[in-house]
Amino acid sequence: MKSEKYIRHHIFYLNKMVKYLFIDTNIFLVLYSYSEDQPIRLKELIESIKQKQIAFVLTEQVVNEFYRNRESKLNPSLNTIEELSLDKNKFKVPAFCSSLESIKKIKEKFDEIKKLAKEAHKILSDESKEQKLEVDSLFAELVKITTPISITELIFQKAKRRVELGNPPGKEGSLGDAINWEILLETVPVSADLIFITADKDYLSPLSEVEVLTFLKKEWEDKKKSKIVLYKTISGFLKEELKNKTVTSEEIKKEEAKISASSSPLDNLHIRSSGLFGVSDLSFVGPHPTSGGLVGSAFVEDEKISLFCDSCKQTYPAPKYLPITFCSHCGCANYKNPFLI
User: Fold this and answer.
1) pLDDT means per 10 residues in the chain (341 residues)?
2) Is the same domain home to 64 and 146?
3) How far apart are CA 59 and CA 156, in angstroms?
4) Do 165 and 294 lie in a common domain?
5) Domain with 291 in it
6) Which residues contact 177 (CB under 8 A, 6 or more apart)?
7) Are residues 330 and 182 in the same domain?
């Protein structure tokens, strides 16, 4: 049974004919690796919600996914900063030019950068553990002003049935996307349009990645008698729907590229045109956590993925989630891979 607060909330938006907005977890998580202006867009989104320009739908599932995956998204960024501070990083030049004043100044600056990186890593590590980073604070505020919609037993059973029937969205054996979709079907009123922000290809049409899957689109239109509009970025939504003039087309392109790089790891696998010994060679573009380089190679045989470490020359089954940033056999982080495309 819906609460009185819930009912008042939706009556207000129906009277105002405001569109509903849902943002998938991957959009929030990628903010941890964005440039400095991206949290500004999240601030602007929060302000638009406070001003009731948009009806924002936040689910318990999204909140859980955010905090469940937060640390794994933060770790590569923190490692990149830590790498700058390590003693092994030394500015080396040939002996014949080491006496130049400009070279000496470069070395001094290099040492200063290492010192600053060490200080920054300490501060950011502490703030990360205490959830005091700017993105942490903004997401916490978003949760506070919206009250996440709980996963009821009915929603859970509907999502489970959807997955068992093989209906989108979501991957086999995973209920997360299905839970969010069932909540949207339950929550958003009939005739109210839905704006959906995601880069998850489980929702996107293979024919046109600016539209949701035909199955989902038809289901939404049949049940809600309204349309569903897809965006891949918060910036794109702000520019097109709320007419935010500070958002540039260049910013949207950069944001989309960043999100694509952080999308489902299997989407980053590239099959070569011809394979060796009857198997297909693959490469994946997962960044090394500190160097940003590419790690390992892979091959497919009988639809099973195996990974190959260039250092220890061992193959081993791919884990549930790719890409790999180190060899699970020898523990190395060899990213100089001649097999990469």
Assistant:
1) 48 62 94 72 93 95 96 86 75 78 85 87 87 93 95 97 94 90 96 94 89 95 95 92 85 73 43 31 36 38 43 43 40 37 28
2) yes
3) 13
4) no
5) 264-341
6) 168, 169, 170, 171, 200, 202, 203
7) no
